[in-house]
Every structure is written in structure tokens, then in C-alpha cells.
Amino acid sequence: MEPRSRSLYLRVPFLFHSLVPSALSVAAATAPTLTQADQQRFHDRLWQTNLRGPRWTGNDNQNTLTSLVSQSMQFAGLDVQILNYTIDRWDPQWWSLSLALKNGTVVGLPTTGYWPYSGDSGVAGVTAPIHDAGTFSVSDVTEKAVNSSLNLQNLPANGSVLFFDNPSPTHNYSLPGYKLLGTSRDIDAVTEIPEIGNLTNPHWQSAKTLDFTSLKTLGVSAVIASWVNTSDDDAALQFLPNDGAPGNGSIHYDVPSLYVGNSTGELIRGLVASGEVDNATVVLNAPSYEVSSHTVISHLSGTAGTNDTIIVYTHSDGPSIIEENGPILLLTMAEALVRQRPSINIDFVITTGHMSGGHLNESNWMASRPDLLANAKAAVVCEHFGAIEWKDDFSTGIPVYQPTGRLEPMWTMANDSSASDFLHELYIDAFNGTSDSLRMAMVSPQVVDGTKSTWYGAGGSSILGYSNIPTVGIIPQPDYLWASMVDGGWSRLNISEAIEQIHSCTFNYYLTIASLCFDDRHILQGTSSIPCS
């Protein structure tokens, strides 16, 4: 990575050279901070929200959160609009697995969770002989599932429970897929953020989907998928892959499927190979019903009196207080910004549909409010602040899930364009003086063999990222991101770090944009780097 000062001056027109420092100093001087009362309220809201349990799309807990946030935004003085939707919600309630052995013994086996949207067995479950389909492989080239790797030959004629190993893809944020644009405090990415070259994470199971419709036509009644090279604790209750049946969600798949840990999978395979298993019973009681869900858009008017705006974006549904703490982040920011109103407008968008299996499009708000995109001078996506890093430790040969002693890297997606370069430098500079524990890497998804690399984040953030709107998407990605946890993820949340992240990478960043766009001299008016009106 070339030195910051050189790259900044290469990309910024000469007019900016003497003006940028003043704009940065103005922003630093005027950026709001969270008071002690703000910070206590931030803590309390997170704690109390966590007590209510997961906020799945359209459940009471999610709707309570969005209602409280929208009321509080309005009370703080913002103009609030609520977009209402209905969705057919799939609701997993009870699940279990047992094997009936040929000696008459019934063995109950532990599971790590269920395959979302796979089906509904009712409380009676589905009973059928087990067929070992081998390994559900991953392509080394595409990092996607290879469905043809499953052995579906000689399936039992009267139905079967399909069993297979299910290794997770690995991932990285390196070339050719991702270009590194910068790091916090110019730290060395290779030594300080080694995850950039090998980001192991159960979350990549989201890339492995099954054609349940085809499996059903082959007589498959249920599925047992075994985690590989992942501890049971790391695999526990991962809501993966988040892929619902085609259509609006009113019709679900009909192949109830469960996950088991690696050791349980080895036990099942051994018993089947030795001919000791008569059949398996898979219980996944998961009824579905229509519910409502809501996107909240809150508008903070700037003092300049223009239509220009910054979009600050997140989602409100997920299994843990890490995955969807975004609404409380945005509310906390808004309440502080009201006291020190910036020149530019800010639109806080809290979308829904993130955990809906694709049945509720998170981008619907863009069609309802095209003016926001038309007027946006920048967009910031904020998710998963305060995440403590946990990883499987393989030092003993057996994976042990434990904290690494670090915070999760702040992966920041950014669009790599000439219009965005300058703002990216401002974002990176916002980390000057932050604590050593805050590790940020800004990466830009590249086009490889004609295909865009994935822009990760709340649904719709990729639309912003692939547009001409300068966009940064802040998305720490802990292993437990989509996992339900007994404590809701509270033990893995560092609130002090979340507060530092609010101050550094949001307040300082978009208030610098406001200063550059709307100071007395209109520094960036009419330039090509930031399209201020």
C-alpha cells in the first residue's frame, strides 16, 4: 500500500491541498461525542433488547425493536416514515434426531441446529432409512457448493434420510477478488489482520444451498448434514444457509433438515457403514404463518437547506445483539447529531428482511424512496459494532472454540472509483489516534473473469456499493454472526469498543463530508471528487 500522503495528493485536485487540512480540523472540532448519559442509555438499550431474545424477521421482538427506535427517532426530532410489509414466517420451535438400531436400541443424538427453511416435520418427525451421500464438496475455484459431489445413487425406494459431510468454504479479502485500499493507522494488514488472507468462518455455509425440490422428487424425506473442521460450539445454532424456497415464502421446502457436529457425524457414518442402523427420525417442528415487518426511515434535516443527504444504513433482524445492534447504533448517532446539527441532511435507514431467506427484499425501500439515492452524496452502512473475535483453536489437533484476545476486524467494503477515492481517504484518516485494538481494513470488491466479487452487508448495501454513490460498508464478521446463543451474544459484545467505533468511523467521517460540502467557501462545490450540489 502506498504511503497515505502520497496517494491522497495524487488523487485529490490541487485546489484541495490547502483546504483538506482545514476541513478535517473543522470536522474534528465540531464532531459530536456521546455524553456519559448517552453511553449509559446505549448500554441499557442493548441490554434490554438482548433480554427479549432473537429478532427474527417479523417476530414480536423485531417489531418491538423497530417500534421503539422509530418512536425514539421521532421524539428526538427526526421525521420518521415507516414502510410496512407482510411475510410468511418460518418458525423453528423443536428439533431432534434419533437412530433406531437393528438391535432394538433407540439412540438420541445431539444436533447443532437446523437447516433454515428446509421444511416442517411436525412434532412426529420423519422416519426413514439413512443413505450416506458422502461429502457435499466445495469448488476451489468458485468457493461454491458442488451439488454433483453428492452420491444420490441407489436411494431407498420408500424414502430416505440423506446424510453427508458438509465442509465450509474458506474465504479471503485479498487479490484478485478484493483490493486493499487502506488500514486503520496504516497498520500492516498481513501481520496485524492476518484474517485478510484466510478468513475461516462458519458463515460461508451461506454459499452452500441444496435443491430441496429435486431431492424431494428423488424420495429424500429429510437431511442430516455434518459440520467438518468446525467445533460443535462454533457450529451451534448457525442460521445457515439463509435460503428460502422460491416465491413469496408462502410455500416452503418439504425436506426437514438438521445439522450435527463432526464427532456425531463420524458416529452416524460408522454405524451406517457397519449395517447397525435401521432408520433415523428427524424432528423439525417449524410451522409458518403470516406476520408484519417494517423498515424505518428517519430524516435529520441539515442546516444548509439543500436536498443533499448522507444515507446511514443498517438492518433490524437477526439472532444476536451483535448481528442486529445497528438500529440502536443509528438511534444513538441520531440523538447526538440532533444536538449539533450538521449542514448536510442525514437519512437513517433501518431495513428489514435480512433473515427472511430472500422472501422479503431488503432493498424495497429504494423503490419506495428513490429520492434518497438521487440526493445521496455518500452512504455509510453500519453493522456489528463491538464484536469480540472468537475462533476455533486447532493447536491441539481438535478444534476448541474460544476468544482470540482480539476484537473482530472492522472489514469495510468500499467502491473503488475516482469519485470515491477522496472520501475513502477521509474514512481512513478518521482512525488516526484510535486504540490499537481497533483493526480496520478497507477493501474494494473487484471484477474477476467478468464476475463482481461479493459486497457483503445488509441487503441493498451492494446496490449502493456498486453505484456511483461513494459508499463504505462497515461489517465485522465474527464466526457467531448468524448464530443463536444462550446469552444472545452479550458476552461477545464490547460496548466501549462500539462507542469508539461510533466516534471514529461515523461521526468524524460523515461530518468531515459535511464540512467539505457545506463550509462557508463550499470547498467541494462543482468538483468531480464529491458531487455536492
Automatic annotation (TrEMBL):
<protein>
    <submittedName>
        <fullName>Elongation factor 2</fullName>
    </submittedName>
</protein>
<feature type="signal peptide">
    <location>
        <begin position="1"/>
        <end position="25"/>
    </location>
</feature>
<keyword id="KW-0732">Signal</keyword>
<keyword id="KW-0251">Elongation factor</keyword>
<keyword id="KW-0648">Protein biosynthesis</keyword>
<dbReference type="GO" id="GO:0003746">
    <property type="term" value="F:translation elongation factor activity"/>
</dbReference>
